Amino acid sequence: MKSVFDxxxxxxxxxxxxxxxSATHEAMGDEEGRPLKKLAQLYERLSRGGVGAIITGVxxxxxxxxxxxxxxxxxxxxxxxxxxxxxxxxxxxxTPVIAQLAHTGGKSHPSAVGKEVxxxxxxxYPPWNLVTKEMxxxxxxxxxxxxxxxxxxxKEAGFDGVQIHAAHGYLLSEFLSPHCNYRTDEWGGDTxxxxxxxxxxxxxxxxxxxxxxxxxxxSSHDADKNGMTLSEAIKVARLFQExxxxxxxxxxxxxxxxxxxxxxxxxxxxxxxxxxQFSQLHPLLKKILSTLLPLMVKKVTPIYNYNVEPAAQIKExxxxxxxxxxxxxxxxxxxxxxxxxxxxxxxxCRPLIIEPTLIERFQSGKQDRSKCIDCSYCLLGVxxxxxxxxxxxxxxxxxx
Length: 400
Ligand SMILES: Cc1cc2nc3c(=O)[nH]c(=O)nc-3n(C[C@H](O)[C@H](O)[C@H](O)COP(=O)(O)O)c2cc1C
Ligand code: SF4
Prior knowledge:
Number of strands: 14
CATH topology: TIM Barrel
Number of domains: 1
Bound molecules: flavin mononucleotide, iron/sulfur cluster
Helix content: 25-40%
Largest sheet: 8 strands, parallel, barrel
CATH superfamily: Aldolase class I
CATH architecture: Alpha-Beta Barrel
Shape: globular
Strand content: 15-25%
Distance between the termini: 55 Å
Strand order of the largest sheet: 3-4-6-10-11-12-13-14
Order of helices and strands: EEEHEEHEEEEHEHHEHEHHHHHEHEHHH
Radius of gyration: 20 Å
CATH class: Alpha Beta
Number of helices: 15
């Protein structure tokens, strides 16, 4: 009988169990995007807390895809030494670290990007109303090269593998989704052409790094009109395997952030307090918008285990390992997922924000479920400060 506590091998990487810390933007980069010391301390805590592997928060591959304040970057060779230092303590503890690479495309935050953001097609992106410029073929090739060089740098820095972020409405996911990609050239249209940008990254990256583990995170479905569907996601996962990919993490969500990190209720108060784009608004406008926002932002349900069945269906079609993320809170559910082989790994984000040592607590029998209350204030909090748990409470300030 398989257990979530079994030692395992993921794409050749040895793990002490089957728990993965899902990619979590920590907002712990300096102005240039180099990792700060507190990030190394967080990874050390997660490692001591018993997680099998850590996936970093997004590392940007190109300056025009550095879409969040204090986002880490890996777009320059000179940053490799900084990442070597970041990895030192956690490597000594024996926990593998996988670097997540991304270009944030049209889902960038206005406080972090210039006027022009890139996307497969011209489109206005909610909630911040940034408009993307349709990328030229030269710009697509530049982004492909950005990913490939960043994959090379992750290997040079000593990461155990890399994960390409093609989920949640960021640039590669925008190429995959017909909701964002209206192109009629060889980069849009059918699934193969929408996947092409990822296929080209894979082909070029393999030539540079050889048999180094390259994984992907995809959305199995989303709530966007004409967006990602499970049958599309299955095709994408198969194409990734054919491209020589090593593992697939199954998530969900496109344009709406509360589809990827689902919530008990739309966190209106936190949006107005923690998102710099909304916190500056006139109090009267805030009041009006507060009543409108819950009607404008769709609350997606269910909020627990919401990618397990899609992951199981994707796994049936693949030979490479499948990781599932999204609303996993109870140890019993996670044991069942692994035991019934619905996925090979379980991945947690918010449970490890509120309790970085949760896995150790599971293992020692101190706890059998996460204490996270699914408020997602942490998701808004990283727009104005480093990652932390708010537990549904807003910070006080002198202006309150
Ligand atoms: C604060 C925060 C930051 C996140 N940053 C990333 C990220 O950098 N890359 C990514 O793929 N997903 C990111 N996510 C999404 C999570 O990895 C995960 O897919 C989602 O929250 C659902 O898992 P959970 O229910 O365990 O939180 C983030 C989520 C939160 C709450
Ligand atoms: S702020 Fe804390 S309790 Fe709320 S979703 Fe994030 S981790 Fe969970």
